[in-house]
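Summary for the lay section of the report: proteins are chains of building blocks that fold into shapes. Here we show the chain for Beta-galactosidase and then a coded description of the shape we predicted for it.
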Amino acid sequence: MTGFSVVDDHFALDGRPVRLLSGAMHYFRVHEAQWGHRLSMLRAMGLNCVETYVPWNFHERSPGVFHDVGALGRFLDAAHALGLMAVVRPGPYICAEWENGGLPSWVTGRFGRRVRTRDAGYTAAVERWFGELLPQVVGRQITAGGPVVMVQVENEYGSYGSDQAHLRELAGLLRRGGVSVPLFTSDGPEDHMLTGGSVPGVLATVNFGSGAREAFRVLRRHRPKGPLMCAEFWCGWFEHWGAGPVARDPADVAGALREILECGASVNVYMAHGGTNFGGWAGANRSGPLHEGPLAATVTSYDYDAPVDEYGRATPAFWAMREVLAGYADGPLPDPPPSPAGPARSVRVALTEGASLAATLEALGDPEGGPYGVPPTFEELGVDRGVVRYRVAVPGPRQPYPLTVAGLRDRAVVYVDGVRAGVLTEEDRTLPEPVAGPAEVELWVDALGRVNYGPRLGEAKGVTGGVLHERQYLYGVRARALRLDAFEEPGAVAARVPFGEVSGPGGTGLFRGFFELADLVDGPETGHAGLELPGWTNGFVWVNGFCLGRYRSVGRRRTLYVPGPVLREGTNEVWVLELEGAGAPWVELGPGAPVRTGAPGTGAG
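The coded shape description reads as follows.
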């Protein structure tokens, strides 16, 4: 029987020493029809293994209702078909710059700060989830003829807590669920992280972007024996909306990789191919040394400055890392597959039809709830991604007073008696002009992404405090949600939304346009396209019912990646849901982002 094991200071495959040369690629960030190409790129770079997280919230969006858990199994099968081993990181917490660190909002809403602890209710929810998930892994372990050689327990727990009983519980759940391959933890190479995040009997690994010798020296202080592994070699970094570019010199990346391998260690390149935060699943961080500062939301692209870029193309870092990895290969490396070809030309797609945000909410939204004494949060409404309209009356007659939204997360477009009065944020939470009563106030609240790392993990979204007129709370709030999931049935959207003619720029709502694939390419298909929305402010885009993710008018990230398999021969359809202020009624489709040149920029890791 084929087996993978930990032997003294190395890994062994069928009794022979083996080094894991792994690369991170998340199946949920790559269109399934493109898995094979991207995995082939990893093999051509010199990797023998692929690693993926598993996002619990993507697969169990409401309690007991599971969505395409089999995607993980299909991804592992695709890796196996190409001769790659696989490492699975099922969490339940994954960070990953993913919404809520992969924890469902209904879990954090229910258990609050008790998540990631030995709390019995939280553990029971994890156990139920693992009961659904683990059969996808167990039947594909290397002992069963599959690719899975290792499974991670939690994720970077030492950066968060010190409840080792919780880690032992999770390891026990994995073992009782049938996982027999080696388990491991991963943490930063610091004493407090390794003390809090590693447990006896489970292999400990470290994560870093440089300084391998020092990182492994710290690890050896805690684990004198066992294989050395960098479970996340940060070859790049992620981006926040409004922040500058993040890039790293390919020569520096290759040098740091070489140092890891010269230490005799295994490695997992994070990310080998980052992909895209489709569907509005991008997470967020809190700034500052204690991660308690202003919200910094993650962009839709998860390119990560990875060696295989968001469009599936080899970058200079790919070739630099391939040169290093070739020295550790059993034979000549395979050639990369052909690079995906983009559109032959650009096309402006007119958005000729539209419906107001109120009409779209009426057609696709939840029933309105209330009146509530205290505004319900997104979690209390059971909303993970989308927008919530809060309505409340200002009694009267009364003189004008400041109107403030306490505990706002994250943005609210405010209307007073149907007239737009401003956009509020967590930091700027009071309308510029006082409000007199009586008046009717509407707050269209948009959550930019839940925190995925640090002590603010699991914080609620929406109006988490209240609406105040001067110092008085306004009660009798009504709330109605428009969920992104409501757009997953294109036929229902087309049938129920009352689209009309679009006259010009401005306003909010759902806009629709059509284009022919022949306008972009000369053949029946294309490998990808890029979509831009000049002058648009904040919202989401769908092509043929597939949600590309969020766009914003801040920062340098203005192009959304369109996977080629989303486009179809003949007529294609674009929807744009604008939440703050539409631009001219058109979008631009074209080749997308150029191939990176490899010029060094801001270092990461």
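Put simply, here is one thing we learned. The longest helix spans residues 120-138.
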